Amino acid sequence: MNLSYKNKSIEGILTIIPQKEVSFEDEMHNYNFPIEKSRKLKLAMGYDKHCIVEDNVCSSDLVVFGLEYLFKNNLLNKDELDALVVVTQTPDYIMPPTSNVVQGRLGLKTDMICLDINQGCSGYIIGLIQAFMLLDQPEIKKVAVLNVDVLSKKVSRQDRNSFPLTGDGASVTIVVNSDENKIINGFIKMDGTSYDSLIIPAGGSKLPSSAETGILDEDKAGNFRSLDNLVMKGDEVFLFVQKEVPLMIDELMEASAFTKNDVDYFMFHQPNRFMLQKLAEKMKIPFEKMPNNIVANFGNSSGVTIPTNISFNLGAKLENSMQKICMAGFGVGLTWASLLMDVGNLRYNKIIRY
Amino acid sequence: MKEKIVKILNEIRPEFDFETSQNYFENGMLDSFDVITLVTTLDETFSISIEGVDILSDNFNDLNKIIDLLQKYGVNHES
């Protein structure tokens, strides 16, 4: 599905990363594999270090920390916010929405919309799309898109396929109406028939968590995980990404009347280095225009990888210039979504540590 | 080409005999994460780039299938 929006822009991006770094070399002994085999995989996948929260930290902690940083540094006035869009797969509670928790903890005005969206790898695009739609309301002038995931709490520490690349993090993206008459093009597709390609089987109403769902089982490859843990059909997801993402970007370019050569940067979701390099090769995009270093430096924080990628790789550049950016997310749902928009002259675009 | 492929496979999983075996995945000789190491090494060794859509377990399930795949990318038997 093609989408388009007018007169919307990003005012600033703040990414919040946990202080705690875990090195793959240090945790290799947790996995049921020979050390040499794990080292080979480290090179191909880009495993190095990943940042995860301490056990007592929840999603709203990261988001509140980020917004308070903006308030304290006079980068955002709390009374200006008309909507909070929290995109997360790790809400503080099943109920109430985490966005309401954030609103209450920060003492924000009641004359606003608080909204939670359950999305993962495409969550940054979905959050921005929601913000663009909200901004069409005359009384909504400024929206905070708050992506946050602390999936390290849901991934088995004995799962070498997933834990080494799991990262936690949050981002605050402030979206506003703009006087510039620029079009933002978007593209989105979803395929719920593959809902179980990436799934945490227990903990919802279908299968509530219990003592039984917490029992670790060994899979064919030697990983241990329980029904309370995230599990991924890696082969299926890999093939889905390699098939659908290049087609999506081609359609986005066609609808926008731009070409891939017109794009300054392709800031994609960061599942792992191998998958991104294969995508770049297929799409004939130079590696330097499509960074793939987020898993190695921070881990895959699901919907937070795109803002992390933007803040880490284009920090000051986007504070001082305008760039044509193609963003794309793909994964859980299955969902795949992209945006082509000019981003730049941001008030802030940086990473802070929680 | 065949000898190089066997050498690469043996470096990944030295405990198996890849020359005489088939159905690598069903027999537990390779898993999907081994394929990532295998593809990366094949790309480097033969100066090719195996496309993502070809990275299916079926294309790596025995020696002949790997040879067929490499031939598709222009690698000949003498390589």
Which short descriptors sum up this protein?
heterodimer, A: 354 residues, alpha/beta, Peroxisomal Thiolase, Chain A, domain 1, five-stranded mixed β-sheet, B: 79 residues, mainly alpha
Q: What features would you describe in this structure?
A:
The complex is a heterodimer of chains A (354) and B (79). Chain A has 354 residues and is α/β, with parallel strands linked by helices. Chain A has one domain: Thiolase/Chalcone synthase (Peroxisomal Thiolase, Chain A, domain 1, 3-Layer(aba) Sandwich), CATH 3.40.47. Chain A is built from 9 helices and 17 strands. Chain A is globular. Chain B is built from 3 helices and no strands. Chain B has helices at residues 2-12, 32-46, 63-72. Chain B is globular. Chain B starts with a helix and ends in a 7-residue tail after the last helix. At the A-B interface, helix 2, helix 6 and helix 7 of A face helix 2 of B.
| CATH level 4 superfamily of chain B | ACP-like
How would the global form of chain A be characterised?
Answer: globular
Strand content of chain A: 25-35%
The CATH topology of chain B is: Non-ribosomal Peptide Synthetase Peptidyl Carrier Protein, Chain A
- Topology pattern of chain A, helix = H, strand = E: EEEHHEHEHEHEEEEEEEHEHHHEEE
User: Topology as H/E string of chain B?
Assistant: HHH
Count every beta strand of chain B, where a strand is a DSSP E run of 2 or more residues: 0
Mean pLDDT of chain B: 89
> What's the CATH class of chain B, please?
Mainly Alpha
Radius of gyration of chain B: 11 Å
CATH architecture of chain A: 3-Layer(aba) Sandwich
Largest sheet of chain A: 6 strands, mixed
Distance between the termini of chain A: 37 Å
Low-confidence stretches of chain A: none
- What's the number of extended β-strand segments of chain A? 17
CATH class label of chain A? Alpha Beta
